[in-house]
Amino acid sequence: MSTTVDNSAEGGMLTIDQAAAYLSIPKATLYTWRTRRAGFGPRAVKLGGCLRYRRADLDAWVADHLESFDDTAAIPEQRAGDGVSLSRASRPR
């Protein structure tokens, strides 16, 4: 059992493995957000060719992506008697 403490996480700078664990997502998701969805994921810092994430940036990104349940327009109104189903269309049998 190791008794060493990882000081990089305490200082707020996380490796990609630590950032993925902090967000509870796969490491590949962070790479995908960075390469295929540029600008979507949390901001990263490149130090010596290695990606690092500041804990504050991860927290800010999470705060920016909180769901809002105030938006009532997202819930369609069902009108009685129009005969249209709001569920997904089924395929012919």
Question: Could you walk me through the main structural features you see in this protein, from its secondary elements to its overall organization?
Answer:
The chain has 93 residues and is α+β, with helices and mostly antiparallel strands. The chain has a domain at 8-65: Arc Repressor Mutant, subunit A (Orthogonal Bundle). Helix content is 33%, strand content 11%. The protein has 4 helices and 3 strands. Strands 1-3-2 form a 3-stranded antiparallel beta sheet. Pfam families: HTH_17.
- Rounded to the nearest angstrom, the radius of gyration is 21 Å
| Count of separate DSSP helical elements | 4
Rough shape?
elongated
Could you name the CATH class of one domain?
Mainly Alpha
On the 0 to 100 scale, the average pLDDT is 76
Architecture per CATH nomenclature, i.e. the level-2 architecture of one domain = Orthogonal Bundle
Name the strands of the widest sheet in spatial order. Answer: 1-3-2
Class of secondary structure makeup: alpha+beta
Q: Indicate the low-confidence ranges by residue numbers.
A: 1-8
Which percent bin holds the helix content? 25-40%
CATH fold descriptor of one domain: Arc Repressor Mutant, subunit A
Order of helices and strands: HEHHEEH
The biggest beta sheet reads: 3 strands, antiparallel
Q: What amount of the residues lies in strands?
A: 5-15%
Number of strands: 3
Termini separation (Å)?
61 Å
